[in-house]
Specification:
Blueprint lengths: L4 H12 L27 E6 L6 H13 L3 E6 L5 H9 L6 E5 L3 H6 L7 H6 L9 H4 L3 E2 L2 E2 L2 E2 L5 E6 H6 L12 H11 L1 E3 L2 E7 L7 H7 L16 H16 L3 H9 L15 E7 L2 H5 L9 E4 L10 E2 L3 E4 L7 H11 L2 H17 L12 H11 L6 H13 L3 E2 L7 H16 L4 H18 L5
Length: 456
């Protein structure tokens, strides 16, 4: 739900499709010095883009960096990643030193020379790449070269309003994604549609954003291992067709979307608390939002999101740190990326989160990162039994999803593939047949892939 993927498709073609022209120069590009650019003690100004860094988890890690690099003056342009702003800065020859962006965009920027390989960064500053989960590195590795350092690790399970399920005479186990006809029947029983007006979604499959997840559950990955698009794979078409039927079952797209758009997703009247949704697949950060509704009507349940053989699956979300072409202080940028994602720093972040939890008299729901040793250490030290069985179940399910999550392969046309499938799903929801929508998307994405440079 979060990230900049929806913004980048407009900006990338206008500034980068011509290749690497205008992106840095030898006089500005510190990477021309090779490994020497990363040697020595970090110092000087460091310009960061795309990192809001306002909660205690971020602030504790920023403090850890500053303590370890006191001679670096950090300027953090707060706010989410803005593709147009980034590419304009590149074209003007005044890029930031470090950018925080969606991992699925890294392949596109790497292929077009907008960001630089981290080979020397990793070697000279001894970044332990073994600490990161392999799936988190998949979208960051193009032609066997790493271009980013991964941060958080976002996975998906089903979250459930147990009251709605119980009132319908169903069990928590009925919220499953292995048997699609049965799921459609369950959604029909849980939904409430009166006179064409939706009053409750039985099972919100979270289209259009969840299309890659449903394709994966049906055995199709929308990006091939070589980075080429795979949008009209028959199994992807089948997944979209099923979701169209699921939406139709619950009032049709116009009513469905209008109802869902009115959700107070972050507030006290969130859909699982006020009976607006029986269940939906949702990312792990959402349990922090729901925590405030405990004791206020919420009866949370959770089941694993599985493929059609019943095996747990999840797509993988999260951001990464990348160093742009022409960065003036790559040494400090590399040190920042290393420090912010190290086990020791994540432990400090967990300590800061626990301080907030204790102050609020709440409970810890986990801290999910791309650093596996950090996750395991945080879980062992700080994760206690939740005061509510539904939250306990959800948290355990999220942890169980970490090692089964799948990252999309890096693609030199990653942004265009992303834009193509989103447009296709939107057209299908508006009435175009799934096959035709995804055939068109595949043609568009394949064209972008064929035209994209292999190297920046």
């Amino acid at each position: 739900m979060r990230g900049a993927r929806g913004l980048v498709a407009i900006a990338i073609p206008s500034l980068l499709l011509t290749g690497c022209a205008g992106v840095g120069s030898k006089t500005q590009d510190a990477t021309a010095k090779g490994a020497a650019a990363y040697e020595g003690t970090p110092q000087g100004p460091l310009k960061v883009m795309g990192f809001s860094g306002e909660d205690e988890v971020a602030q504790s890690r920023i403090a850890a960096f500053k303590a370890g690099a006191p001679k670096v003056q950090v300027t953090n342009n707060k706010g989410d990643f803005d593709a147009q702003q980034f590419l304009t800065a590149l074209a003007s020859g005044n890029p930031p030193d470090l950018v925080y962006l969606d991992r699925n965009l890294v392949g596109t920027y790497a292929a077009r020379g907008a960001i630089q390989p981290l080979t020397d960064c990793i070697a000279q500053q001894k970044v332990d790449m073994s600490q990161y989960r392999p799936a988190a590195l998949t979208p960051l590795t193009l032609d066997k070269v790493v271009y980013g350092i991964p941060e958080f690790y976002i996975v998906t399970v089903n979250l459930v309003d147990k009251r709605v399920v119980s009132k319908a005479g169903l069990q928590l186990s009925d919220i499953q994604t292995a048997d699609w006809p049965a799921l459609q029947a369950t959604a029909g029983r849980l939904s409430a549609v009166e006179g064409g007006k939706v009053r409750r979604l039985g099972y919100d499959s979270k289209m259009p954003d969840s299309f890659p997840l449903w394709a994966l559950a049906n055995g199709a990955q929308i990006v091939k291992p070589d980075g080429a698009p795979n949008l009209n794979d028959p199994k992807a078409v089948e997944a979209l067709t099923f979701n169209l039927a699921l939406v139709k079952e619950q009032g049709g797209w116009n009513s469905y979307k209008a109802f869902r758009d009115a959700f107070d997703i972050f507030g006290a009247k969130n859909p699982l608390t006020v009976d607006q949704a029986g269940a939906f697949p949702m990312e792990n950060w959402y349990v922090n939002v729901l925590r405030d509704s405990l004791g206020k009507g919420l009866q949370l349940g959770s089941t694993m999101f599985t493929n059609r053989q019943g095996k747990p699956v999840s797509t993988l979300g999260g951001n990464a740190w990348v160093i742009p072409k022409g960065a003036k202080n790559p040494r400090a940028a590399c040190a920042w990326a290393k420090t912010m994602t190290s086990t020791n720093t994540w432990m400090k972040a967990a300590e800061a989160r626990m301080a907030t939890v204790n102050k609020d008299k709440s409970f810890f729901t986990g801290l999910f990162t791309a650093n596996k040793p950090a996750d395991e250490a945080i879980k062992a030290k700080y994760l206690k039994a939740a005061p509510d069985p539904g939250f306990e179940q959800a948290i355990n399910n999220y942890y169980a999803s970490l090692d089964v999550a799948t990252g999309l392969p890096a693609s030199r046309a990653g942004a265009e593939i992303d834009a193509a499938w989103k447009s296709a799903v939107a057209r299908a929801l508006a009435g175009q047949p799934a096959q035709a929508a995804l055939d068109q998307a595949q043609k568009e994405a394949q064209g972008a892939f064929d035209k994209a440079p292999a190297h920046g």
